[in-house]
UniProtKB/TrEMBL annotation:
It comes from Parahaliea mediterranea. It comes from the Bacteria. This is Phosphotransferase. Residues 19-100 form the PhoU domain. Residues 286-466 form the Aminoglycoside phosphotransferase domain. InterPro entries: Aminoglycoside_PTrfase (IPR002575), Kinase-like_dom_sf (IPR011009), PhoU-like_sf (IPR038078), PhoU_dom (IPR026022).
Amino acid sequence: MGNSLPPEATGNLRFLVVEVESQVSNLGAYFKTPSASLARRVADRGGYADNLQLRIQNSCASELARGTVTESGQLALHSLAVIAAQLERISACCRDVLEQLAELECVENVYPMAFASMLGKVRRGVRDVESAVLGRDTQLALAVGRIDQKLERAYARLRNDLTVRLKKGGATDELVQAMFAAYTVKQMGTALLRASESVISANLGQAINFERFRTLQAVTDDLPGVESLRVAKVAETRSGSAIAGLADSRADGDDYLAIYKDGQRAKLKEEKQGVKSWHAIFPGLAPRILSYKKRGESASLLIEHLPGLTFDKLLLNESDTAVNDGLRQLGKTLRTVWSETRTERGVNAAFMRQLERRLPDVYKIHPEFDLGTSRICGLEVPGFRDLVQRAGRRERKLGAPFSVYIHGDFNVDNIIFDPLERRINFIDLHRSRYMDYVQDVSVFMVSNYRLQILDTPLRQRLMGASLDLYRMAARFAGKQGDSTFEWRLALGLARSFATSTRFILDKSMARRMLLRSRYLLELALGVDRGAEAEFRIPLKEIFVD
């Protein structure tokens, strides 16, 4: 981190560390021997820390404005700005503590040595921040971060002692003010924790918090023969999971040893179970789980890195030959999976129930979509929610005649094609289950449509990929005697078009997607009951812009 920072910024960091360390030291001395002069040394110097922080942030902003900073350099500059802000926050906390102590007649009555001990830990942490930054010392940054836990424990003990005295009828005002002061000192630990996280993030090359780093350390212990790792951000899911590629720092190139994923414990547990199920039901499609660790409500997975391209990258960047090969392999793989996992148990995907559950999220992003029944020249136009509810009532009686094992979240970025091995793999398998195969088909088709690509040839390629998968699925449905495939697909597409708008901020595109959803629902509802097998979707009209 240190080598990529402008000298002016690192110079001001040195001054800021010295200034804040001095203020913390003076505050600690005040608890031991209270005096007006010590109080003034803290209270009168707030502007110094604030000005130094501002200089550091201006230096970082100027460097970024040049437009020549690498991605890792940008993260280092951002991290330095955060560190400066956290140091200034500690300075502000020092002044806050003094204000809270001003009401006390005698500091000696509120455990001054406990306060002094806590502030001694803060002082050491402030001093070590600079060394961790300039020396790119992750272990020292971890030590700084652990001060937060030490202060948390010290605060808990001090709070308990003060509470006991309050219950015994001690000087209420003094004890309450002392409790506020203790909490403010504890907040200095939080500031040190955030500063340490910034150092670690800059050293790793991606944003990471303290707990995530500790979990990363735990799972990477399961990678044999690797002394040091290089971490590269791969993705950030909408649910908050972070995905990173782990590579041996001594190796050249971008070949990952494994993929690290962390997030909510429940979701990652589902993914682990989904991968396990795929290995039992259809081996070879899912990656191997190398490690799984849990910590409270969070968890992490270390997953086998699969070679190849995600399907969106294949469609957007590769040749027509590679795309056609990938689509053939995808169709072949799906036919095999569907045939080999087919069960005679009928199933209902309940597309409309899924859609109705997500409509509130859609309306939060696009409140203009939330329209009730209206009239145009005397003709009643039902509201979108009314259409969904009517379609839902019909859907309950028209499930799939059989079930297969599906991916469950079959977006194009969850499918990997290896052009060398001509092999398809699936990732992000937390929703896999036995279900109507129409769900995977509809999700794949709409995930192509919603890619915000304006280039006409690429747009045509994406629409072609959707139609290609549809044709394969329609042939499969015909061979299996699935007569209501198209009618259910209309509802599946309507569901995916509408729910996907919550990820689209482009009003024009979101409106096109909602109108397609509405059109499909109106077409499906326009079919006479019992005649669903005769229904055909006008796909060329739907999948064209």
